[in-house]
Design goal:
Blueprint: H1 2-11, E1 15-18, H2 27-40, E2 45-50, H3 57-65, E3 68-76, H4 80-85, H5 92-104, E4 108-115, H6 122-134, E5 139-144, E6 161-163, E7 177-179, H7 184-199, H8 202-207, H9 215-233
Parallel strand pairs: 1-2, 2-3, 3-4, 4-5
Antiparallel strand pairs: 6-7
Helix pairs in contact: 2-3, 6-7, 7-9
Amino acid sequence: MENIDRLVNEYGIRSMFFTDDSLMTLSDQFKDVCERLIECNYDLEWSINVRTSEVNPEILALMRKAGCWQVSYGIESGSWDILKRIKKAATPRMHERALVQTREAGIKSNAYIIIGFPGETHETLAETEAFLKRVHIDTLRVTYFTPCPNTDITDDLEDHGELVADWTQLNFYNIAYIPEALTREDLEKTYRRIMARFYLQPRVLMSFLPHLIVPRKAVALFRGSFGLGKLLTSRSGCKS
């Protein structure tokens, strides 16, 4: 709270993003932060990374009252088989419930999706695409599975696929690993299809229109649209 007060009063900050994925794990302390934000009445808008297993209508309502406008969830996959393999402490049903509750609280949702996990197949990718069709998400970020060194999941990667990593290019948007049931082309096509189906929805396109009246946001929107267009028409993800 001292840091927030300094940012608001000394630097004029009016928008903030809490990147700590574990902030809500300390539920009592997090509620206290929300209540103190309400008391301080900073006129501050903020967003946060949260696990779907940690939200409920009560905390979402408190967050909204405290100025939260968006919650980002690490959905990762719509396949229960993949979620179990990566030891995700949530099920597709839990993801769906959290997204519904977030919308009902008047908070926008952002979802992180990763494709190409070890064990990924055409069937598990189809489950993820089906999941994205049936839920309401406001913004979406899709990346490729990236085998960061010295993590548990890298122990037996080559037994379940092909490691094609150039370690200088590990940026989540270059393909570094190809599961044995898929090809590079499968991953690239799935990536482009998911992004196109989501961002070309009339509902999603219309949601960005209000930003056009704010010059700073309009410039960012045009840049983002140009970048998305390049990603959707290129053979693979970005190269830098």
